[in-house]
Amino acid sequence: MNSTANPKALLPHEMNEIARIFSEILSERGLPRDCEAAEAIAARLINCYQTGIRESGALKYTIGLDLRSVSTENADIVDPGSPEVSMRQIAGASDSELGPDDLEMLQRTFDRVCVWRNIPRYGKRADRLARSLTDQFRKGMSDETSLFEHAMWLEQRSDPSRHRPDA
Length: 167
Known about the structure:
Layout: H1 12-29, H2 36-50, H3 56-62, H4 87-91, H5 100-117, H6 124-138, H7 144-157
Helix pairs in contact: 1-2, 5-6, 5-7, 6-7
């Protein structure tokens, strides 16, 4: 198969797979294709697919729409209607704007930590994680592996009772 010059370009079979998963999500949620929520879901699906997440369940979990994947300690706060924490919003809120590659790397790291630690992508816990990653990046920790390990260490050390579902 021919490779493309742009590593983010999606091939037809990849678009078909994204469309299939997108249709499943809309069907599960009872959403029409022409609503704002569907547009947000499509954008997030494509972004996650381009970062290397290919399996249907992993994509649904990563974008925060597979409620079965959320641990029971967080299950009562999962509200797909709540705004999802975005590294673009958190990191872009300060005076020093980060480049698109840095934002993408921070978002990838945030997503990985959320998956590994069963953190829903909305709420105060996700917001704290995003701010912590951004702070560490701005302090000079620019290596993705180091950021991931540091965030995992902080999450592991934190007392789960500190992160009540409504906190």
